[in-house]
Write a structure and sequence with these properties.
The protein is an alpha/beta fold. The chain has 3 domains: 86 residues, Arc Repressor Mutant, subunit A (Orthogonal Bundle), CATH 1.10.10.10; 109 residues, 3-Layer(aba) Sandwich (Rossmann fold), CATH 3.40.50; 54 residues, no CATH class. It has 10 helices and 10 strands. Strands 1-10-9-8-4-5-7-6 form an 8-stranded mixed β-sheet. Helix 1 packs antiparallel against helix 4 and helix 7 packs across helix 8. It starts with a strand and ends in a 14-residue tail after the last helix.
Length: 257
């Protein structure tokens, strides 16, 4: 769901293409599920299906990791979990701060999936003085006055922005000036960041709009398929009605003969 905007070349310096990097978390999620079920090995086809990726693409992706699997046996699940985690930098602890502890920020703070993937929420920061000291997900919210100090003391390099759109640019600038070099932006705005800072943005409404586009297409296809089943005279009448379709989309109903 995240759409990336990074200042990195399409191929990382170690020769792993960005598109492969973007798929590694999908493989890891599928592999972690297999590992939890104590499955020792997996074929490329099974893993590709579980990750929702084409199996030829998966084999190519894994070749960048130097992992080729064993013919007839497949890939060693535990070893791949280790290899991908290492490649993604998940074998080390990443402290993150969440800025903007409203509905979304509080929900993110309460999400247990960060910690289990190596992301420790180091601090929750909000500009509202009334929120300072209030516990959210078992942590006291800290005021934005403390932002620079928190980043420095915790060695934070990843910041999550969940403020209103109007505040996001200024928040990103403060985070970056304090030492943050990666931002996950939930605010619906495009951030201007200097070279070397990675921004990923998450916008659920954009995803819904894309689904709406596909729904509209499906509805159009279904209409076309239904029209194709009509007897010729009724089909001609339906086509004529479609041609008469006004700007408001008002189409006279045509019933099959
Ligand atoms: N990406 C998505 O899919 C998605 C989904 C829901 C909401 N959002 C966006 O997330 C943001 C937060 O939504 P919400 O419903 O939690 O809003 P909210 O109003 O409940 O919370 C916003 C919080 O940000 C704080 N804030 C305002 N300015 C700040 C600043 N300069 N520094 C630090 N904190 C500041 C406010 O005090 C408030 O607590 C909005 O931009 C919203 O559009 C995105």
């Amino acid at each position: 769901m995240a759409t990336g905007r990074t200042h990195r070349p399409a191929t990382r310096s170690r020769g792993i293409p960005e598109a492969t990097v973007a798929r590694l978390p999908l493989y890891l999620r599928a592999l972690t599920a297999l590992s939890e079920r104590s499955v020792p090995t997996v074929s490329s086809e099974e893993l590709a299906a579980a990750a929702g990726v084409n199996s030829a693409k998966l084999r190519k992706d894994f070749s960048y990791l130097g992992s080729y699997g064993t013919r007839g046996v497949g890939y060693d699940v535990e070893y791949l979990v280790y290899q991908i985690s290492r490649e993604l930098g998940l074998t080390q602890d990443w402290p993150v701060v969440i800025v903007g502890i409203g509905n979304l920020g509080a929900a993110l703070a309460n999400y247990g999936g960060f910690a289990s993937r190596g992301f420790r929420v180091a601090a929750l920061i909000d500009a509202d003085p009334a929120m300072a000291g209030k516990p959210v997900a078992g942590m006291p919210v800290q005021h934005t006055d403390e932002l620079e100090k928190i980043i420095e003391e915790n060695g934070v390099s990843i910041g999550v922005i969940a403020t209103p759109a109007g505040a996001a640019q200024q928040v990103s600038e403060r985070l970056i000036a304090a030492g943050v070099t990666s931002i996950l932006n939930f605010a619906p705005t495009v951030l201007q960041v200097p070279e070397g800072v990675d921004v990923r943005k998450v916008d659920l409404s954009i995803e819904l709009q894309i689904l709406a586009f596909h729904e509209q297409r499906k509805a159009g296809d279904a209409e076309a398929a239904a029209a194709a089943l009509l007897p010729p005279a009724a089909r001609r009448a339906a086509e004529a009605a479609a041609n008469r379709k006004g700007p408001d989309g008002d189409v006279p109903a045509v019933m099959p003969a």
